[in-house]
Amino acid sequence: MCSDVRPDYPLQSNLVRRLKEAVAGGDREKLGAILRSLALGEPNAAIEMDNDDWMKDPAVQLPPAVLVGLWTLEYKRELTSPLCIAAAQGYTDCLHYLLQHGAHPNLTAGGRAALHEACINSNADCTELLLQHGANPNQLTEDGFSALHLCKTPHSIRCANALMRYGAKVNLHSEEEEEETPLHVAAKHGLFQHAQLYLRYGAQVNCQSCNGETPLGAACNEAQDKDDDDQQEGFLKLCTLLLDYGADVNVVDREQRSPLHKAARNVQHDLVKLLLERGAVINVLDYNGCSPLSNVLQSAVVRQERQPHRVVQMLLNWGSIQVWPQALMKVLVACAAAPKSVEIMFNSYSMVPVTYKWERAIPEEIFQKHQLFYESLFALEHRPRSLQHLCRSVLRKQFGKHCHILLPKLPIPQALKNYMLLEPEGIIY
After folding, report:
1. CB of 19 within 8 A of CB of 34?
2. Are the C-beta atoms of 307 and 330 separated by less than 8 Å?
3. Residue 300 CB: number of other CB atoms within 10 A?
4. pLDDT digits (tens, 9 = 90+) for 104-123
5. pTM of the model
């Protein structure tokens, strides 16, 4: 907010002090009384709730960057209004009182209108009331977000429903640098019901942000930090919905990363399987020349709790091109602490020469932790693989990208099928 804005009630005023005390103490009765008193006098007053103008305080410790001229000399005020306070706090009665006494529903304070505050805080009744009194469902914040863009929690679904009924534009792009639609926001936060609502109202399922990311790509990218099983299931359900509505599984962003790249990097086993079943191109390369297989190998150590070897195994059984044999040393170094991934990769080749350099590349503490496996691996130096392994390699080469379909159908014991499908055993023969 510009420094020349003059609030009706500045930070040092008695009213602001009382407002802050009421909000901090959760005193609904006191806050309601203050807001009602404002409604009778100045229902559209600008109220200053905070101010970071450190230039006014000579005792303030300036950041080092200021001293070398790298810090902006602008400061911001946090302005609000009685209507915004009532909407943010979910005080429907106060909100109604203010609107009846002349508060303007589309007045902005601090870059946001009351409708934005209601949606940010998932206050559905306030959202409904504001819309009934003429709030613009497509009004943008100072940062370029519509009210739909601010519906980011599961509890905000009622707000989103109300906005859609009152004419919110479902394909409106935000004006900040991402240029995302509400469907992008729903996808990033794993909001199945929101996405379902937007798609029913005509949301463009393959619409791209300024970075070239589709809602499907956004969902696959954001699933990385969702370790909770229910949240992962939610993202899987959401991606299935997007695909059912026609999401293109192979659209890449500006870095040439497909949804499969992102799901593999985040070690989302079920999501990777879903994308492959829906036709994801398995050997597409991103801007850095990485395939989905390369992405999961890069994450094998940091995301071991998600069993990255299962994704490595799946990609190879679905026809992923292997890492160039001469680059296996790099894989060994990068994935040493994830021996199951190393084992699966090594067994996907018919023959790879093991040298003394491999042993030197493994840190002693990792070798000790996985001694049985690495001793079996290094014992293959200058030795051929077993006949059983060579037979496996021939069949896998013959079946190619159909290994995941054809190998389970062979009339052989299940243990042998698992062997053919590169199930790790913890030792190399």
Report:
1. yes
2. no
3. 26
4. 999 998 899 999 999 999 99
5. 0.88
